[in-house]
TrEMBL record:
Domain Potassium channel inwardly rectifying transmembrane intervals: 36-173
Segments traversing the membrane: 72-93, 144-168
Membrane-topology annotation of the record: Multi-pass membrane protein
Lineage, opening ranks: Eukaryota, Metazoa, Chordata, Craniata, Vertebrata
Compartment(s): Membrane
Protein name, UniProt field: ATP-sensitive inward rectifier potassium channel 11
Cellular component terms per the entry's GO annotation: cytoplasm; inward rectifying potassium channel; T-tubule
Domain Inward rectifier potassium channel C-terminal positions: 181-353
Gene label: KCNJ11
Matches recorded under Gene3D superfamilies: 1.10.287.70, G protein-activated inward rectifier potassium channel 1
Reaction equation(s) it catalyzes: K(+)(in) = K(+)(out)
Taxonomy, superkingdom: Eukaryota
């Protein structure tokens, strides 16, 4: 039925029906859980936290970290609860002073035009948000009413400052700016300047710059110490290189950041075959900088698993000069091409440099051979008729 609807190809259905039930089935190897997702979120679940009160010691940060539905709920309930609380206080003052009793000739009330809890609630809203419709007001009859008026104004200002500050911080969080900082979907390993290099591309989609941008990289893998201690997330910093030098980058146009795989690199013994079987390897890239428009420090993160690293490929150029200015074609941001690369580890390449020399010679002969073939195809062919020879 599914094949008739086009959901499953018919060839697949026939193959499944023709299977031998006695034949053993092999399940695919489960993919390694990421420590950092491609979008930069940390894949860590905090469980069994006993000291929950620590979060209440920093209420503002806790409110900012909450999700939007919870923040809006707290925002609304904080005002409603304060209005209801002071409405009850105003109603009790009016009740104690006898202002709720109807009739003429009564004494001057503490608050005019309060006859029920509804009118006390409306007066509480008018006081806290400073509306002042003019129908209700505090008189000089009750000093306690004047004190409550001062207290409610102070409490209202504090709630406004905390809630509005929380909303502002949530809308201007640093990770919002990181949405326009992009990384290439795959990383590549190829030869650059005679050495094997791990390369990736980073770019910024906005025209506003990231000031003092720095980039760093870590390798996260499961290791075991000589004493037998298992470290599930062993983090190792490795240096990154770029065209400017050092970790600082000038991110006006997309840049190719690379790491030279030398004897100090954790990738020194990484071979092409390990990219399909090295399930414990994860490379985390962190880009930090100051947002030019807001002055807030932002951070963008991504990670590459072993099967997301392409061996023997290189990023295609995407920056070109057009009409006196440089243009960037982001449609080719993650495109790569195959390049001659030795199928060995960096250690083996350092021990036997003849592998690189042979590769360089082969890559040099390639363009010459293509050029000679092109010239042979373009060479005109002349035919001489027998009449011309006679």
């Amino acid at each position: 039925m599914l094949s008739r609807k086009g959901i499953i190809p018919e060839e697949y259905v026939l193959t499944r029906l023709a299977e031998d039930p006695a034949e053993p089935r092999y399940r695919a190897r489960e993919r390694k859980a990421r420590f950092v997702s491609k979008k930069g979120n940390c894949n860590v679940a905090h469980k069994n936290i006993r000291e929950q009160g620590r979060f209440l010691q920093d209420v503002f940060t806790t409110l900012v970290d909450l999700k939007w539905p919870h923040t809006l709920l707290i925002f609304t309930m904080s005002f409603l609860c304060s209005w209801l609380l002071f409405a009850m206080v105003w109603w009790l003052i009016a009740f104690a002073h006898g202002d709720l009793a109807s009739g003429e000739g009564t004494a001057v009330p503490c608050v005019t035009s309060i006859h029920s809890f509804s009118s006390a609630f409306l007066f509480s809203i008018e006081v806290q948000v400073t509306i002042g419709f003019g129908g209700r007001m505090v008189t000089e009859e009750c000093p306690l009413a004047i004190l409550i008026l001062i207290v409610q104004n102070i409490v209202g200002l504090m709630i406004n400052a905390i809630m509005l500050g929380c909303i502002f911080m949530k809308t201007a969080q640093a990770h919002r700016r990181a949405e326009t900082l992009i990384f290439s979907k795959h990383a590549v390993i190829a030869v650059r300047h005679g050495r094997l290099c791990f390369m990736l591309r980073v770019g910024d989609l906005r025209k506003s710059m990231i000031i003092s941008a720095t980039i760093r990289m870590q390798v996260v893998r499961k290791t075991t110490s000589p004493e037998g201690e298992v470290v599930p997330l062993h983090q190792v910093d490795i240096p990154m290189e770029n065209g400017v030098g050092g970790n600082s980058i000038f991110l006006v146009a997309p840049l190719i950041i690379y790491h030279v795989i030398d004897s100090n690199s954790p990738l020194y013994d990484l071979a092409p075959s390990d990219l399909h079987h090295h399930q414990d390897l994860e490379i985390i890239v962190i880009l930090e900088g100051v947002v030019e428009t807001t002055g807030i420090t932002t951070q963008a993160r991504t990670s590459y698993l072993a099967d997301e690293i392409l061996w023997g490929q290189r990023f295609v150029p995407i920056v070109a000069e057009e009409d006196g200015r440089y243009s960037v074609d982001y449609s080719k941001f993650g495109n790569t091409i195959k390049v001659p690369t030795p199928l060995c580890t960096a250690r083996q390449l350092d021990e036997d440099r003849s592998l690189l020399d042979a590769l360089t010679l082969a890559s040099a002969r390639g363009p010459l051979r293509k050029r000679s073939v092109a010239m042979a195809k373009a060479k005109p062919k002349f035919s001489i008729s027998p009449d011309a020879l006679s």
